[in-house]
Amino acid sequence: MNLVTPRTTIRRPVLILLIVLPAAVAQANPRIDPTSVAATFVVVLAAFFLEILITSGVLLFAGMAAVPTFAALVLGNVGSYFGVLGPLAFHFELHIVLVELAVVAAETAFIKLISLLALFQQDRFIGLKWRYAFLAALLGNASSYYIGTLMT
Questions:
Q1: Rounded to an integer, what distance in angstroms lies between the CA atom of residue 96 and that of residue 77?
Q2: pLDDT score, position 109
Q3: d(CA 9, CA 13)
Q4: 62-72 burial string, b = 16+ CB within 10 Å, else e?
Q5: Higher-scoring residue by pLDDT: 126, 11
Q6: pLDDT digits (tens, 9 = 90+) for 132-143
Q7: Is residue 88 within 8 Å of residue 106, measured between CB atoms?
Q8: How many whole angstroms separate alpha carbon 126 and alpha carbon 137?
Q9: Deepest of 64, 65, 95, 150, by most Cβ within 10 A of its Cβ?
Q10: Integer Cα distance of 73 and 56 in angstroms
Q11: Cα–Cα distance between 32 and 64 in angstroms, integer?
């Protein structure tokens, strides 16, 4: 049974554009205002944990273990924020779309890397494709971007 038809191959890029395009025009990076440092902290934490919850939820369907994956994604997202987002956005002052693409690429590679380790695999795990790792990273990153947009 062939599940890939010309019609489904056209839908996939359209769906990805529908997810990514609104993020290209949105401005979600919270600006630190001395009078609302607590509010900025709440926005950043909400976006951070929403991204991790959605990404690990998507990865559950691929057979990855929930708790170790969640813990690894916490460390991975902190690393991608300080190692990728911070330097690219603040030091090199690149456009936010390029920065977000770099973050999604880094998180995709991180997800693929942890999926190779037995600690992060459930019994029914059969392998994680790059496409699925990209989808998980994209959905998680887009959701945190949107929550940041809504809350700022």
A1: 17
A2: 94
A3: 7
A4: bbbbeebbbeb
A5: 126
A6: 999 999 999 988
A7: no
A8: 19
A9: 64
A10: 8
A11: 36
Radius of gyration of the chain (CA): 16
Read off the pLDDT band of 130 (50, 70, 90): very high
Write the CB contacts of 97 (distance below 8 Å, at least 6 apart in sequence): 23, 24
Half-sphere exposure of 14 (CA within 13 A, CB side): 5
Tens digit of pLDDT for each residue in 12-60? 667 666 666 665 555 545 455 556 777 777 778 888 888 999 999 999 9
Q: Which pair of structure tokens corresponds to residue 115?
A: 């999926």
Amino acid at 9: T
**CA-CA distance, 33 to 128, in Å (whole number)?**
42
pTM for this prediction = 0.72
126: tokens are 């059969």
Q: What counts of helices (H) and strands (E) characterise the chain?
A: 6, 0
> Could you tell me the two tokens for 130?
């790059």
